[in-house]
Amino acid sequence: MALSLEEIIQPGYEKAIPGQGMPCSKEPGQTGDLRITFFVEFAVQLDQEQRLEVCNILNECQVKKEQENQADGD
Q: Which InterPro entries match (predicted)?
Protein backbone atom coordinates (compact mmCIF):
# COMPACT_ATOMS: atom_id res chain seq x y z
CA MET A 1 0.00 0.00 0.00
CA ALA A 2 1.32 3.43 -0.90
CA LEU A 3 0.57 6.27 1.48
CA SER A 4 0.91 9.92 0.60
CA LEU A 5 0.54 12.58 3.26
CA GLU A 6 0.07 16.30 2.91
CA GLU A 7 -0.15 16.85 6.65
CA ILE A 8 2.83 17.82 8.79
CA ILE A 9 3.96 14.76 10.74
CA GLN A 10 4.99 15.19 14.35
CA PRO A 11 5.61 12.71 17.17
CA GLY A 12 2.41 10.85 18.04
CA TYR A 13 0.54 11.95 14.89
CA GLU A 14 -2.16 9.44 13.96
CA LYS A 15 -3.58 8.83 10.49
CA ALA A 16 -6.75 6.78 9.89
CA ILE A 17 -7.28 5.11 6.52
CA PRO A 18 -10.97 4.18 6.15
CA GLY A 19 -11.75 0.60 5.15
CA GLN A 20 -8.15 -0.64 5.22
CA GLY A 21 -8.11 -2.13 8.72
CA MET A 22 -9.00 -5.50 10.21
CA PRO A 23 -12.18 -7.33 9.21
CA CYS A 24 -15.18 -6.63 11.47
CA SER A 25 -16.27 -9.82 13.24
CA LYS A 26 -19.83 -8.57 13.75
CA GLU A 27 -20.20 -7.34 10.15
CA PRO A 28 -18.98 -9.92 7.62
CA GLY A 29 -17.44 -8.36 4.53
CA GLN A 30 -16.74 -5.08 6.30
CA THR A 31 -13.36 -3.80 7.40
CA GLY A 32 -12.45 -1.22 9.97
CA ASP A 33 -10.12 1.70 9.63
CA LEU A 34 -6.36 1.26 9.59
CA ARG A 35 -4.84 3.57 12.19
CA ILE A 36 -1.18 4.49 11.88
CA THR A 37 0.67 6.25 14.69
CA PHE A 38 3.94 7.93 13.74
CA PHE A 39 6.87 7.79 16.13
CA VAL A 40 9.35 10.48 15.14
CA GLU A 41 12.88 10.89 16.39
CA PHE A 42 14.59 14.17 15.68
CA ALA A 43 18.34 14.32 15.13
CA VAL A 44 20.28 15.75 18.04
CA GLN A 45 22.99 17.11 15.78
CA LEU A 46 23.74 17.26 12.06
CA ASP A 47 27.02 17.52 10.23
CA GLN A 48 27.50 20.19 7.56
CA GLU A 49 26.46 17.88 4.68
CA GLN A 50 23.28 16.86 6.48
CA ARG A 51 22.43 20.50 7.23
CA LEU A 52 22.86 21.38 3.57
CA GLU A 53 20.57 18.52 2.55
CA VAL A 54 17.88 19.64 5.01
CA CYS A 55 18.10 23.19 3.64
CA ASN A 56 17.77 21.90 0.08
CA ILE A 57 14.70 19.82 0.96
CA LEU A 58 13.04 22.73 2.75
CA ASN A 59 13.78 25.07 -0.16
CA GLU A 60 12.26 22.57 -2.62
CA CYS A 61 9.15 22.32 -0.44
CA GLN A 62 8.85 26.10 -0.32
CA VAL A 63 9.17 26.40 -4.12
CA LYS A 64 6.57 23.66 -4.63
CA LYS A 65 4.16 25.35 -2.21
CA GLU A 66 4.60 28.72 -3.96
CA GLN A 67 3.93 27.10 -7.35
CA GLU A 68 0.77 25.44 -5.99
CA ASN A 69 -0.41 28.76 -4.57
CA GLN A 70 0.19 30.49 -7.90
CA ALA A 71 -1.71 27.76 -9.77
CA ASP A 72 -4.63 28.09 -7.35
CA GLY A 73 -4.65 31.85 -7.78
CA ASP A 74 -4.75 31.78 -11.60
A: DnaJ_subfamily_B, HSP40/DnaJ_pept-bd
Residue pair 29/1 in contact (Cβ under 8 Å)? The answer is no
Given a cut of 70, whether residue 74 has pLDDT beyond it is no
15 and 34 both lie in a single domain: yes
Residue 40 contacts by C-beta under 8 Å, 6 or more apart in sequence? 9, 10, 11, 13
In a domain, 5, yes or no: no
**pTM for the whole thing?**
0.56
Q: Per the structure, how many domains does the chain have?
A: 2
**Average pLDDT across the chain, whole number:** 88
Structural domain including 21 reads 11-42
In one-letter notation, the amino acid at residue 27 is E
Asked whether residue 26 is domain-assigned, the answer is: yes
